[in-house]
Structures are given as C-alpha cells and as structure tokens.
Design brief:
Elements (H helix, E strand, L loop, with lengths): L2 H10 L7 E4 L2 E4 L10 H5 L2 E3 L2 E6 L2 E5 L1 H14 L8 H14 L5 E9 L13 E8 L7 H6 L1 E9 L16 H13 L4 E5 L5 E4 L3 E6 L2 E4 L10 H12 L4 E3 L4 H6 L2 E6 L3 E8 L2 E2 L7 H14 L10 E3 L1
Parallel strand pairs: 8-9, 8-15, 12-13
Antiparallel strand pairs: 1-2, 1-7, 3-6, 4-5, 4-6, 5-17, 6-7, 9-10, 11-12, 11-14, 14-15, 15-16
C-alpha cells in the first residue's frame, strides 16, 4: 500500500493529517515521523502511550486534564522500565506547542514513548527510547450515532489482563493485543464493542473503556483491583456524578449485574461518555440511553468545553 493510499484511508476514517508531529524535542513533518523496521516496540510491544483530548472553548483550544495524563505516561514508563528523559511539565508544554503550530481548534492527542533501534532480543536495554506526540482532529471514537443512541456490547471470551501477568494500571502497548482480540471478536459477532471479564470472572472493562452500570438510581463501576485502567475520564465522571448528588459505588460486578442494569455506559478519552443500549443481545433498560447516562454526558461535555467553572482547573488553555 502506497503512502498516499494510507493517507487517503486515514482521512476516510475521519482523521486528518497535520503539518507537524513532535519527536524527541523537535517538530517533524508528518510524513517524516517514521521509525525503522527493526524498532524494538514493533516486535515486542515495548511502548507506553496516552490518549488525550483538546476541546474548543470560548478561550480557545483547551486540553483536558493534561498534567494527569502526562504524569500517568511517565509513571507507566517507570513501571515498564522505559527510560523517560522528559518531565510531565515538559511533555505538557510540548503538547500545547504542537496544538499551536498545527493550528488545531480541537484535537485528539497521542503521546507515546517506545523502545526504538538498538536491540532485537528480549532484553531491550540497548534500544534507544523515542518519545513522540501526535495530534489531529478526530470525532467520536465509536461514532456520533453511538453517543446519541448507544452501542451493543458482547461479553468477550478473552479475559482482561491481570496484575500477575502485566500492568493493567498503565497503557503499555503490548498489553493492547488483549483488547484487540476482544474487539475483533465482538465485531465479528455483530457487536459494536467488547466487554471483558477479569481472571476471577468479574466484569472489568471494554476493549478501551471503563464500565458503569446503573440500578435503582445508584451508579456502579468496577474498582481498580478488578484489573481496570484507572481512567482519567472515569475519575472525572465519578467526581461530577457525586457532586450532582448521585451515589457512585466501586465494587466487583458480575455478568448478572450487567443483565440487570437499568442503564449502562462506557467512559474513555476517545469514547467520552458512550451509552450502552444492549449487552449480549439483552436490552439495557428500555434499550435507550437513560436519564443518569444523559446527565453524565451533559456534565462531562460542560466540563471539557469550559462551561463548568468549578472545574476550570481541569483545562489547560492553549
């Protein structure tokens, strides 16, 4: 497949290329931000990444909880023993500069640190570390209709990675093969997204989203010890719901709990707040987004677009 064909495919999926990508402290042309075929991370998944969004606000583009995302990136690199020479503050500055030079009114932002050239065996010590940040305009991860009408979800035959094998609390690149297997299985089965159980059979999360179930006005979500990523969007939504007087309980949840839920939704930087209308071909409630789900969506969008003054500190204005 030619480079131009790749770009056309990328654009067809609603993702527009931009002039620059930040790599190791420099702005590099989009088409020049390449790696060698013997890049260690390409063979073994030795990378840690983040997903961040910037939203258009009355004050210009604003990055949502930028510092927390960069802190998690640096922490993930430490956990996976990938040397990181940049501080969270330096990475945050690179993100805002990248948005400025690309003149993006809003953006999805993908920072990544990975082992590059220099080693091809399982010991990555001699592989150079590359740190890069890309940003581009990208709409709803699961589609605008998904945000309005909700999605169908299938419980996967694949189990969520656990603490005894990998590090679920960090966004390690290689670990996402687990998510990819689940997502491909779900789509092959006619579902929009997968829902994974953990190694003990309790609900964990989607292929790339945190899970919330609602019953009798109480919101339930699996705790971090269930093997879920402690999502920044998840934390934000929990905070907003509790501030609105809605009870949120972190507890182990079963497949039966999912079937009994009156409402359900996923959260994530890319997915934002996405309603779930069906689980394993069983309607959630009446099969439409419920009132608490809609309230969570509204509160979240108000926060990320600067319309909630109480959480102005969540935004970094570019």
């Amino acid at each position: 497949m030619s480079y131009h064909t790749v770009i056309e495919t990328w654009q067809h999926r609603g993702m527009q290329s931009v002039p620059y990508i930040w790599m190791n402290g420099e702005m590099v042309g989009w088409e020049d931000a390449n790696v060698h075929v013997l890049t260690h991370a390409l063979h073994y998944g030795t990378s840690v990444f983040e997903g961040v969004r910037a939203y258009a606000t009355d004050k210009g583009p604003a990055v949502f909880r930028l510092e927390e995302h960069m802190e998690r990136l640096v922490s993930g690199c430490k956990a996976y023993q990938i040397p990181m020479e940049y501080t969270p503050a330096e990475l945050s500055s690179a993100v805002t500069e990248l948005i400025r030079v690309n003149e993006l009114p809003s953006a999805y932002i993908r920072p990544i640190a990975f082992r590059g050239l220099g080693a091809i065996g399982l010991n990555p010590t001699n592989a150079a570390v590359v740190v890069a940040i890309a940003a581009w305009e990208w709409g709803a991860y699961l589609g605008e209709e998904a945000l309005r009408e909700g999605i169908s979800v299938g419980v996967s035959s694949w189990r969520r990675i656990d603490q005894q094998s990998l590090l679920p609390n960090s966004k390690g690149g290689g670990a996402y093969l687990n998510s990819i297997l689940a997502r491909l299985e779900a789509e092959a089965g006619g579902f929009d997204e997968a829902l994974l159980l953990n190694d003990r059979g309790f609900l964990a999360e989607g292929s790339g989203e945190n899970l919330f179930l609602i019953r009798r006005g109480v919101v339930y979500t699996p705790p971090s010890y269930s093997g879920v990523l402690p999502g920044i969007t998840r934390h934000s939504v929990v905070t907003l719901l509790r501030e609105a007087g809605i009870e949120v309980v972190e507890t182990s949840l079963t497949r039966s709990d999912a079937y009994a839920a009156e409402e359900a939704f996923f959260t994530g930087t890319a997915a934002e707040v996405t309603p779930i209308r069906m689980i394993d071909n069983r309607p959630v409630g009446d099969g439409k987004p419920g009132p608490i789900t809609k309230q969570a969506q509204t509160m979240y969008m108000e926060a990320v677009t600067g319309k909630n003054a109480d959480h102005a500190d969540w935004l970094t204005i570019v």
